Amino acid sequence: MLQKKKAVLVDGVVLNGPIMDSKAGEKFVEEACNIIMEEVIQKAGDVTEKVCEWRAPETLKQILDLEMRDAGESHQKLLQLCRDVIQYSVKTSHPRFFNQLYAGIDYYSLVARFITEALNPSHAFWNNSFFCTLPPSNFCFQCYRGGRNCAGIWERKQSGLAE
């Protein structure tokens, strides 16, 4: 029979258990993901949406309440802040946002980023960083091994330059 461990408290903080109700946390993540889906992903291809609802930094300071409070904020307040941040951010996935590197939304990369963030939700640790270095290093190896010509950077031999 499993025995329940006693909570270890230091200055009123539980050190051997969850810091919040996991069901409430899961509900918050679900609601935040719904906001992301509705306000970012579903609107990504809509040319009638604005690329950016620009406001001066001083105006944004008045609109967005970014004050850190000792007591924290309610989930509803944080969800509203999510909506506000999305509203006043540049929508780089918008079809009218042009950049020399990309245009539009890459759904597969977005999901990959969601996975890496979900696996490593703490900003203090890089526990999954080893795996995250594998795909780029594998890509570079494959370019070198197979194509050697992916971006023209291995053409030195053909151009007469010494290696």
Automatic annotation (TrEMBL):
<dbReference type="GO" id="GO:0016831">
    <property type="term" value="F:carboxy-lyase activity"/>
</dbReference>
<dbReference type="InterPro" id="IPR002129">
    <property type="entry name" value="PyrdxlP-dep_de-COase"/>
</dbReference>
<dbReference type="InterPro" id="IPR015424">
    <property type="entry name" value="PyrdxlP-dep_Trfase"/>
</dbReference>
<keyword id="KW-0456">Lyase</keyword>
<dbReference type="GO" id="GO:0019752">
    <property type="term" value="P:carboxylic acid metabolic process"/>
</dbReference>
<dbReference type="Pfam" id="PF00282">
    <property type="entry name" value="Pyridoxal_deC"/>
</dbReference>
<dbReference type="GO" id="GO:0005737">
    <property type="term" value="C:cytoplasm"/>
</dbReference>
<keyword id="KW-0663">Pyridoxal phosphate</keyword>
<protein>
    <submittedName>
        <fullName>Uncharacterized protein</fullName>
    </submittedName>
</protein>
<keyword id="KW-0210">Decarboxylase</keyword>
<comment type="similarity">
    <text>Belongs to the group II decarboxylase family.</text>
</comment>
<comment type="subunit">
    <text>Homodimer.</text>
</comment>
<dbReference type="GO" id="GO:0030170">
    <property type="term" value="F:pyridoxal phosphate binding"/>
</dbReference>
